[in-house]
Every structure is written in C-alpha cells, then in structure tokens.
Amino acid sequence: MDSTGKVLIVNSSWYLPMPLKEYAMSRVTVYFYNDEWIPIKYCFLEKAIVLHQKAKLEGKEILLFPADLDPNEFSNSFN
Q1: CA 51, CA 44: separation in Å to the nearest integer?
Q2: Is CB count within 10 Å lower at the N or C end of the chain?
Q3: Is 27 within 8 Å of 69 (Cβ atoms)?
Q4: For residue range 45-70, what is the model confidence (pLDDT) as tens digits?
Q5: Which tens digits make up the pLDDT trace of 5-37?
Q6: In sequence order, what DSSP letters do the residues of the chain get, joined into one string?
C-alpha cells in the first residue's frame, strides 16, 4: 500500500520474494513430482533458481526445498 492508501501490485513470476544475497549459497534439493516427490539434484539456491526458470520455459515444473526437508514425509502426514 502506498501513502495514498492504494494497493500496489507488482507483476512477478515469483510467488515469494527473491532470496537475500547471503542465502544464495544455501544448499537446496530440486524435486520433481511423479506420484511422489523425487529428488533430482542437490545444489546451491542461486543455481536452483536458474534451473527452475529453465524448467518453466520448457513447460516442466520443479520445486525447491531446503536440503534437510523431505517433502514425502510432509505430504504423508496428510494421508
């Protein structure tokens, strides 16, 4: 919201803000979903964001999770 009370909208393909520079070298896991989460690569966040953008251009979807989080364990808690 700006000083006049109007809501400002920013067009971005990112749903979350870009990470701060100090997190660019954080280790993440790149996952693909096919009936379960399949880890395909461990890398630094900065490189993972580039991979995400390239995959999106190819019509593919990959998701990034912290290296110590297994989304299979998380999603199984709802079953």
Answers
A1: 11
A2: C
A3: no
A4: 888 888 888 888 988 888 888 888 88
A5: 655 555 555 555 566 677 778 888 998 888 888
A6: --TTSPPP----S-SSPPPPGGGTT-EEEEEEESSSEEEEEEEEHHHHHHHHHHHHHTT---EEEETT--HHHHHHTT-
